[in-house]
Every structure is written in C-alpha cells, then in structure tokens.
Amino acid sequence: MIRRALPAAAALALALTACGRQAVPPQQQGTGGAPKLELRTVTAPATGELDKATWNLPYEPQTIDPIRSFNYAENTVLANMCESLLRLTPEFRIEPGLAEKADNPTPTTWVYTIRDGVKFWDGAPLTAEDVAASLDRHLDPALGTWWGDYFHNVESIKATGPMQVTVTLKQPDVLFNQAMATAAGAIVSAGYAKKKDLGSPTGGVMCTGPYQYESWKSGDSLTIKRNDAYWDTALRPKTKELVFRFIADETTAVNALRSGEVDGQYFYLPPAGLGQLQQSTTGSVTLGRSLTFWTLLGAAKSGPYADPKVRRALSLALDRAAISKVVFQGTALPQRTLAGAEYWGYQRDVFQKAHDAIPPETPDLAKAKQLLTEAGSPTQTITIGIQGSSAVHEQTANLIKATGEALGLKIEIKVIPVEQYGNLYSDPKAREGIDAFFSTWYGNVPDPLDIYTVFLAGGRTNFNDYAGVDGDITKARAAYDEAERAALVTTIQQKVTADVPWMPLNNLPVILYMNKRVTGAVASFPYLYYPWAAGLGAA
Amino acid sequence: MRFLAKRLAGLVAVLLVASFLVYGLLYLVPGGPMAFLLGNRSGTPEQIAAIRAQYHLDDPFLVRYAAWLRDAVTGDFGTSLVYRQDVSALMASRATTTVFLVVYATLLIVTGGVAMGLLAGLRGGRADGVVTLVSSAFLATPPFVVGVILVIVFALGLGWFPVFGAGSGFGDRVHHLTLPAVTLSLASAAFLARVTRASVAEESGREHVETARSRGLAEGHIVRRHVLRNAAIPVVTVAGLNVAGLIAGSVVVESIFALDGLGSLFVRAILQRDFAIVQAVVLVLVTAFVLINLVVDLCYSALDPRLSRQ
User: Fold this and answer.
1) If you measure CA to CA, which chain A residue comes closest to B166?
2) Start and end of every ABC transmembrane type-1 domain (chain B) (predicted)?
C-alpha cells in the first residue's frame, strides 16, 4: 500500500467536486503487533444517478429535531437535510457551512456572517433571524437540548444584522465554535423553530440541505428527496429519493442487506452477522475513520478503583489487541489514549509527539505488578457494571477480569439490565456499588479537548469526580491560539492517560455496508453531520 | 342482552385493575425516562428539573395515575414522553399491521389446524400418523426458530418473499406478512389439529353416532350433524385462547420481521418507561382479549343452546 500524502486542500477539492470525486487513499493504522486496518473516508464515486435507494437505521429516530438529535439514527438522517453554520468534512476538517465566516473579535464573542443566496426548501431565503431562532432553542431549558455541554458558556445569541449573528459567551470557549459544525449548529427556519411538533412525524423539519423532508410513517419508514434548488452544486444529490427503514433486529438487518432489499447501513458496533456481510456476494463492507471509541468509565469514589495507581496498573496490563480480535471481530484498533489520531485537527506534530511518549497499547505486566505493589496490593473487590444481553460488554469484561486475576486484582462483573443501563450515566444512585462501567463514546469535533472536557470538575459525566485536569481544561477551552491549546491539551492527555479516570480500550471504525448497485456514501464518522448521501448513486 | 351487559361491565373492571397494576409496576421498577429525554451526556441540574416538572415525573404515584385516568376516560391517552407525539396517533399507524397479522394468522390456524385435525381424526391410519408427526414437530419448534428458518429458505434462498417489513396496500401486505403469519400460526395450528383430531375421534365412537350409522344414515350427514357439531366446542375454546395469545405472541414475530406493529412499540415503550404508550397498549390488549373470549362464549351458545340457558 502506497501512502500518498495529499495536501489537505487538494484532498478537499477532490472530495467536493461532484464529478471528479476520488477515494482518498486509506490510512494504515496501528502499531507493533496490533491489527492493521484499511480505514477510509469516502467510497468509490458513483457513476450515475439513482431514482431511489433504501438505507437502514439501527433503530427508529426519536425525533429529527436538531436540538435533540445526538445519536446514530437521528444524525444519520438529519445530516442530509439540516445544515450547520460550519461543516465537518469526511476528512475531519471544519469548513464554512451556512456561515461564510466565523469571526472572533473578542475572546467572548463569535460573529457569524450568514451565506447569501441560500434558500429553505419552501423557497424562503436564509437570514440571521432563522439562525438566531435555531440556536436560541438550545438556551430554553424546557425544550431539553441534548447539546447543552456546548451551550453552558453561552450568554446570548442575537441577530446583529440581516445576515449576521453574534453569540456572546460568559467565558472564552473554543469548543462552542467547533460545535457549530455538528447538529448543535443546525439551522431550521424561524417559523419551524417555533413549532411544537418540530422534528416529529407530523411536524417534520424545514432546512436548507441537499435533501428535503418528504414523509415519516411512524414505525415504518422515513423518506427524503432531492432538493433540486440546493445552493452547493458540488453536493447535488445523485439519488432522487432516499428511504430509511428501521430494522432494529441485527439478524433481520443483515438478511435485508444481503437480499438487497436494503442498499446500505452504517453500523457503530460490528453486528453478529458481520462475517456474512463481509462474504456477501451482493455488496461489501468498508471500514471508515472514526471518532468513536470503546472505554471503561471509572465511577469509583472509594475502594481500590479510586486509586489512580490501581487503574493505571490494570490499564498497563490489558491486552487491547485481544479485545479488538475477540470482541470486535478484528474491526477495532487498540488505543493508548482516549482521543486517538482522528481527533488531531490541528498541530498534528505536537499531538503525534505527545502520543509517542505515552506507554504503548501492548501489555506491560511487570510494570503493572510493580505499580500494584506500590498501591499496597489491594484485596477488595472491584465491581464492573455491564449491560445485560450484550456480547460486547460481557466479552470485554471477561478479558479485563482475567487480566485482573493475572495481576492479583479481584474483579467482579455485575450485569445490569439493558433498560436500566442508561441510568448509570444520569443517576448517581444507580452507580452505587459500581466501580466502573463500559461505554462507547465519541467526541463530535476534531479536537482532543472535546473528549477531555468531560473531566471538568462537577461535570455530569465526570463520574468519579476526577479533579486532576480541571484547571487545564478551563485554560484550554479559552486558548484560541492552536499552538497554545495543543500544548495544554497534550498536558491534559498525559495526566488523564496516567490517572486513567476512563480507560482507553479500542477505537471503533465506522462499519459501512453497501450493496454493489450503489456507491459514493461517506465512509468516515462525519456521516453523522455531513450530507453523506449526496454522493450516493449508481455504482 | 343481560349477558352482554354483564360481560361489558366485567371488561371495564378488568381494564381498571390492569391499568392500575401496570402503572404501579412501571413506577416501582428502578430507572426512568430521563436518559431518553435528555440523552446520556448533557443536562444541567436546572434543565433536568425543568424537564421533570414538564412531564410531571416528580408527582406522587396516585396523582399521576389519577391524572392519566381522567384523561383516558375522555379518550385522551396522552403524549408519548419519548416521541412527543399523540399516543393514539402512534398506535393507529401500528394497529393496522398487528390486526392484519393476527387475522391472517387466525385464518391459517383455523383452516390449517381444523383441516389437519379432521384429516387425522376421520381418515385415521397413515394420515393420522403423518399429521401427528408433523404437528409434534411444529409444536416443539419455538416461533423465533421457525421465523429464522423460513427467512433463510423462502426469503434469502428462494427469494419468494421479502425479508422484512409490512408492505402497503392489500396484495403487498399479504405478500409481506405471509412468512410472519406462518411463523406465528404453526405451533397454534398444530395444537388445534391435535385437539380437533382427539375431539373428532372421540365423537366418532360415541353411542349416538353408532346409532345413526346403524340406522343407515349417509356418512356425510353423520359427520356434519353428529360428529363435527359436538366436536366443535373444545375446538372453538382452544382456537379462541390461541388467537388471544397471538396478540402477545406477535411481539417476537414483529421483531424478527421488523414489522411496525403494536408489539414492537410496546416492548420499546417498556424499555424507555414511556408510561402513556405502555398503558394504552395494555388497554388495547386487555380489551382484545376480553372481546375474543366474549366471541368464543357467543359461539358456544350458537353451537349448543343449552349452554346459555342457565
């Protein structure tokens, strides 16, 4: 495999030229004995148009209201319809979107200049009013935004000109602006922003994207169709109509994909029938670069797992390649840090150097044992909570338990029913007696800070009250200078990796299956926020 | 008429008890819908408080139940917490699929089961052996296994039927729901065949049938008037019970074939603590169950007028 380093600008130009679309060479990843995977950002360009394509979602969206769309199915649909102020490209770069430019005249102000000539599907022009109304919805507690983490620092959002919106922050925040490239910055028309049933099957949405909302038959399917008046001609859809189905049962979904009744699907975890898909004669599997990872979230405030040395010992002893092989059928990559290389959206050299200085993913049992002795060889039991009827949880827990036994750590597995597992995140009472629990997690923007910011003191997801990096995070979120921020973030990363409040396990590439009759879908993680289906067409 | 009125009053009482039990049980089980209302990540304490107040999640149990009951009596089943849509709208679109599936499966069970049972009971000999063997196999195989096998053979292998979905329009629905209906009906049809066979065999040997035979009546007449009519009572009982059970049994089949029925809605609502939907589906299921039993009772009276005379 020849590694060809395309200059970023050229790569983007290629990706954005509809007819000249080319696959960016896949990146080889992994170190040492770890598995190597070909990870892509795009798939082969389509050669022709299609009247209709059918896509499966892992479950039916709860809503397509952008402020509550922060999950796989919701964003997979929404990304094709509702555009954000900025755009996250398949190559993990942030570009202008509905905002032509974003200025930062003072550290606590972001001024967005709205793009001229953009029209909603109903023909109404996009103005600052629409933008302000859309963003303002995140500030109303009764509407229940899921993106609150990015809006905690917002003081006010105002239309300061016909085509200009000014956001005033309570304190400088670099993540706010980056979040405008996700569904947090998605714009609906001002009229729709007031609708009570916005985003429901009866209400629908009104946005500016390359696909427009057509219909949503609750329980059955959601249909979007090409917006023929789309402003960005480079992203004019090649498929006239895209129908989403909601097959939740994995076996049924795999069967529907193999039979060709469904043209494609993104999987965020490898399905049990992955082998059948990989050997399928009707289509193929592509692995895409991803911001998603598999991690063990620490929740202990007392006992052995509250001791950073114990956590580091367990982390050092862990065979992450085995997790990839056994649990993820070889589709995952061992990780030494929570935020992997895909997050390095700036100052890559700095992050690369910092990464190389961190102990490798491979197990180091001797060092682990030594650390454990230093920690006083604790004899109390560590309890790991796992989700019931999930093979991924159970298998990882067994591997960690075996590692603990090899070290002399007693680890107990507690199964929590799937319907109660979600409470672990939101309810401290549910976490009582649980020292750690598993989760997939993703940041939304190419900045490792987006991950490490969960360790802010008092943060809702800082489950074990880890306080080692609080001051640095506040400083980093205010550091608009990239070199300064990279220096701060690598320091945070070093501390977090040594103290292991969350244990990095595996990076989880996007698993994309497409029938051979279609091609051109985005393969990488930004499919959640980028109009990934614009390139989808006949193979 | 009094019989009917009594049964309907009973229905209301059963509904009330069932709704109270379900509401109470959901309330007691730990966990709530918060993760589905605000996601796993965000949410300041103020935001959580606002959402909890908005959905009355902090009100005491009896207050919430009473409020729900008051609305339900007026025909308003409330709004789904998670989907923020009218429960009646959510259910209406799904009821069609479930009703179609249950009716289709009922037809298969009744025609298939009774036909097989009659064949075995009246013919005897080899036919009896084959029917017994086949029905044993069907009875022993759980629906999810049947479903998977049918998909592999008839959808993926032969390509005769689609893998998933409920279809739209009558013909398309029949095409889409054939495999699910067969999956749903096999075990019940086998059971019904067994009961029919035993019942017919028993009636055929009874004295009045022997007498009719000795008087030289035509065999067809004997079977219709003396065997089938008397054998029908247990058959109707079993068929009725099975059909009522189908509504609950459709949950598994709906998940295998990705059908947008009430069953899949129900299961998801339970997982998400979506009280309004759970309650509404329970009410529909209980009503259907009671109504089917009522129909069975009416059938008894038609078959054997003595039964309604007490």
Assistant:
1) A220
2) 95-296
Here the ipTM equals 0.80
DSSP helix/strand/coil, A495? helix
For A439, which residue in chain B has the nearest alpha carbon?
B40
The DSSP call for residue A8 is H
C-alpha A502/C-alpha A293 separation (Å) is 11
How far, rounded to the nearest angstrom, does the alpha carbon of residue B169 sit from its chain's CA centroid?
22
Q: How many domains does chain A have?
A: 1
* Option in B30, B148, B164 nearest A247 (CB): B164
Q: What is the mean pLDDT of residues B43-53?
A: 76
Q: Cα B1 vs. chain centroid, distance in angstroms? A: 27
CB contact under 8 A, B258 and A253: yes
Of B54, B255, B260, the CB nearest to A249: B255
Interatomic CA distance for residues B281 and B287, integer angstroms = 10
Q: Which helix (H) or strand (E) holds A251?
A: helix A250-259
User: Which residues lie below 8 Å from residue A141, measured CB to CB, with a gap of 6+?
Assistant: B44, B46, B47, B50, B51
**Partner residue facing B44 (CB), from A148, A217, A253:** A148
The answer to whether the CB atoms of B148 and A251 lie below 8 A apart is yes
Taken as a whole, chain A contains a residue count of: 539
Domain membership flag for residue A309: yes
Q: Mutating which of B86, B98, B163 best tests the A interface, going by the most A Cβ atoms within 10 A?
A: B163
Rounded to an integer, what distance in angstroms lies between the CA atom of residue A449 and that of residue A488? 9
CB contact under 8 A, B32 and A255: no
Q: How far apart are CA B295 and CA B292, in angstroms?
A: 5
B54 Cβ contact list (under 8 Å, min separation 6): A142, A144
**HSE, side-chain direction, 13 A CA sphere, residue B245:** 13
The full DSSP string for A93-155 is -EEESSEEEEE-SSTTEEEEEEPTT-B-TTSPBP-HHHHHHHHHGGG-GGG--S-HHHHTTEE
Question: Nearest CA of chain A to the CA of B135: how many Å?
Answer: 27
Domains and their CATH numbers in chain B: 2-73 (no CATH), 94-308 (1.10.3720.10)
Buried residues in A378-395 as b, exposed as e (16+ CB within 10 A): beeebbbbbbeebebbbb
Edge-to-edge strand ranges of the sheet holding A264-267? A211-217, A221-226, A239-245, A50-56, A264-267, A510-515, A283-288
Distances B273 to A142, A191, A377, B130, B276 between C-alpha atoms, Å: 20, 32, 43, 48, 9
**DSSP code of residue A329:** T
- B42, A149: Cβ pair inside 8 Å? yes
Q: What is the pTM of this model?
A: 0.86
CB A121 within 8 A of CB A233: no
Does residue A335 fall inside a structural domain? yes
Residues A443-455 have a mean pLDDT of 95
Cβ atoms of residues B291 and B31 within 8 Å: no
Asked, for residue A351, whether it belongs to a domain, the answer is yes
> If residue B113 lies in a helix (H) or strand (E), which one and from where to where?
helix B87-118
Q: Dump the DSSP string for B19-59.
A: HHHHHHHHHHSS--THHHHH-SS---HHHHHHHHHHTTTTS
Domain hosting A416: range is 293-507
For residue A258, report the phi and psi dihedrals to the nearest 5 degrees.
-70, -35
For residue A396, the domain's CATH number is: 3.10.105.10
pLDDT band at A9 (very low <50, low <70, confident <90, very high): very low
In a domain? residue A49: no
CA distance to partner chain B, nearest, from residue A259 (Å):
6
What is the DSSP track for B233-274?
HHHHHHHHHHHHHHHHHHHHHHHHTT---HHHHHHHHHHTT-
- Distance (Å) of CA B142 to CA A29, A193, B114, B137: 45, 49, 21, 10
Q: What is the pLDDT of residues A185-207, one digit of tens each?
A: 999 999 999 998 899 998 999 99
pLDDT above 80 for B256: yes
